[in-house]
Design a protein that fits this description.
The complex is a heterodimer of chains A (186) and B (223). Chain A is an all-alpha fold and 186 residues long. Chain A is built from nine helices and no strands. Classes of the chains: A mainly alpha (186), B mainly alpha (223).
Amino acid sequence: MEWTDSQAAREARLGNQQGFRVLVERHSRLVFRLAYRMTGNEQDAEDLVQESFLRAYKQLHTFDERAAFSTWLHRICVNCSLDLLRARKSRRTEDDATSWLEQVAAPEPSPERLTQSNQMAQLLEPALSRLSENERAAFVLRHYEGSSIEEIARALGIQTSAAKHSVFRAVQKLRRSLAPAWGATR
Amino acid sequence: MNHLSEEQLVEAYYGTETAHLEDCEECRAAFENLRSVLDEAKAYPVPERGEGYGGEVWTALLPKLPQKKQSRAWWLMVPAFAAMLVLAFLVGRTSKEVTTTATAIPEKARERVLLLSLSEHLERSQIVLAQVENAGDLTEERDRARELVGANRLLRQTAERLGDRQDVAVLEQLEHVLLEVANAPDAPSGADTAHVQQRIAQNELLFKVRIASTDARDRGLKL
C-alpha cells in the first residue's frame, strides 16, 4: 500500500529517506508549475524546485501532520520564489521575454490555440514581471492555484486585507497592461 | 443605483456572488470585459515535465540533503547492516523450512526491509556512478565505492539465492564498476578513467541501477 503524504512525512522525519523520496517524486511537477509561474523562467523554476525540497527537508520537524503537505510545500516554494524575485530586482527585458516564450512547449495545441496562447504569453510575462513580488505571488496563488485569500495571507505572512488588496492590485495592473493589446489582437 | 467597484468586480470573478450583476447591465458589461482578460490569462503556458521528473529531482537532490547526526555512522555501517539483513532473511527462510513455528520477524517485513535496503544501496551507488561519469574523478569516489562493494556483494548473493535474476544481473555489473573505482590508483590516468566511464556507458548502468532502485522501492513499499 502506498504511503499517504502524512505517513511519508512521518517516515522522513524519523530519518527514513524513502519517505522523503516519495514526497519528492509525488510533488515535483506541481512545485515546478508553481515555481515557473512565479518566475517565468525555466532554469529559475528548476532551481526553486531543488531549493524548496531542501528547505522542506530541513524544516520537516515544523510540519503539522494535520495540515495538507502540498499546502505546506507550496508555501515554502512561494517563500523561496519571493526570495529569488527580491534578490533579482532588475526587470526582465524584452529579450528575456522572448527567450521565456521559446522555452514553452504547449502539448499539441491547435494552430489557432497556439497563436492565441503565444500572443497571451508574449503579453503576460512582461506584465507579470512588472508586478511587485507580493502582487505576483498573490495573483499566481489566486488565479492559477485556486488558493483562498486566507491561504494567500498565511503563505505570504500578511493580513487577509493586504492579501485581498494584493490580488486586486495585480489584476488591476495586468488588466491595464493586457486589455488594450489583447483587444487589438482579436 | 450604486455600481460595483473594480475591486468588487474582481471579487465577483473569483467567486463572491453578487446579485447586482444580474440587475445592472452596465456592471455586467464591465464584468464581462474583466472576465475575458482574466480567462485568457489562464492560458499561461508552462513547459511540460514528464512522468519521470520526480525521480530526476530526487537524484539531483539526494547528495544535497544534510546528513542527520546518526547518518554518518549508518553510512559507515552499510556492509555490516546489509550482512545483518541478509542473515536475518536467510535464517528466517531456513527456520521456516525446518519448523512451522512463527519466526521472530514476519517474512513480509524481512522482505520489505531487504528491498528498501537494496533500493537505498542502489541509490547511493547511482551517486558514485554519476560522479564518475560526469566529473570523471575516480579518486574522489574511491572511498565511497569501497564502502559499497561489500554491501553490493552480500545483496547480490541474497538475490542469487532468491532467484531474482534481474537484480543479480544489475548488481553483478555494478560490482565490477565499484571494484574498479575502489581499486583505482592514487593518480589514475585519463585512460583508467575513460575505461570505467566507457563501462558505465556501454552497459547503460546508470539507467539500469536507477530502474532497479525504483523497482525495489516500489516492491518494498507494497509489502
